[in-house]
Amino acid sequence: MRWTGVDSDFAAFVEARQHRLLRSAYLVCGDHHLAEDLLQGALVKLALRWNRVREGDPEAFLRTVMYRDAVSWWRRFRREQLSDAPPERPAGGDDVPSRLVFEAALRRLPPRQRAVLVLRYFDDLTEARTADILGVTVGTVKSQASAALRKLRDLAPELGEMVGKDRR
């Protein structure tokens, strides 16, 4: 891709990381179009601050912006649908690939729990780094991860070992 009028370091940074960041954004919001919007907005914010951030850790800055914006969106446009009845199991659950079952269960988690799981286990960040990005304490990251894993086990028991047991 040829970039004109853009700092070459910024362009190289974006090209090298955009696909992985888009996958992370998708896992956080569960919708491809929203993920593109989320990443695009974060990249705009990074571009505006590139001269100040470039020598530090621009990817950390970008992830922080992306996850905080995602949580802000969820607060404004709550997508939860509350119900008295437990969720129905998908028909033919045995022939549905685990990835689809996992994505469906992940979308049903509250926003903060979803963000914690994506940061900790998909992006492979430490508890401290996850806490820093989300603006919470390490204890909150631990409790949210534990609650999220427990809820995933309840929502999709067919995932078995993929979700695993809490390690305390």
TrEMBL record:
Record keywords: DNA-binding, Sigma factor, Transcription, Transcription regulation
Keyword Transcription: yes
Gene3D superfamilies attached to this UniProt entry: 1.10.1740.10, Winged helix-like DNA-binding domain superfamily/Winged helix DNA-binding domain
Coiled-coil ranges per UniProt: none
GO biological process, one term: DNA-templated transcription initiation
GO terms assigned for molecular function: DNA binding; sigma factor activity
Alphabetized Pfam families for the sequence: Sigma70_r2, Sigma70_r4_2
Domain RNA polymerase sigma factor 70 region 4 type: residue ranges: 102-152
InterPro entries: RNA_pol_sigma-70-like, RNA_pol_sigma-70_dom, RNA_pol_sigma-E_actinobac, RNA_pol_sigma70_r2, RNA_pol_sigma70_r4_t2, RNA_pol_sigma_r2, RNA_pol_sigma_r3/r4-like, WH-like_DNA-bd_sf
Keyword DNA-binding attributed: yes
Domain RNA polymerase sigma-70 region: 14-79
Family listed: Belongs to the sigma-70 factor family. ECF subfamily.
Protein's name in the database: RNA polymerase sigma-70 factor (Sigma-E family)
Taxonomy of the source species: Bacteria, Bacillati, Actinomycetota, Actinomycetes, Micromonosporales
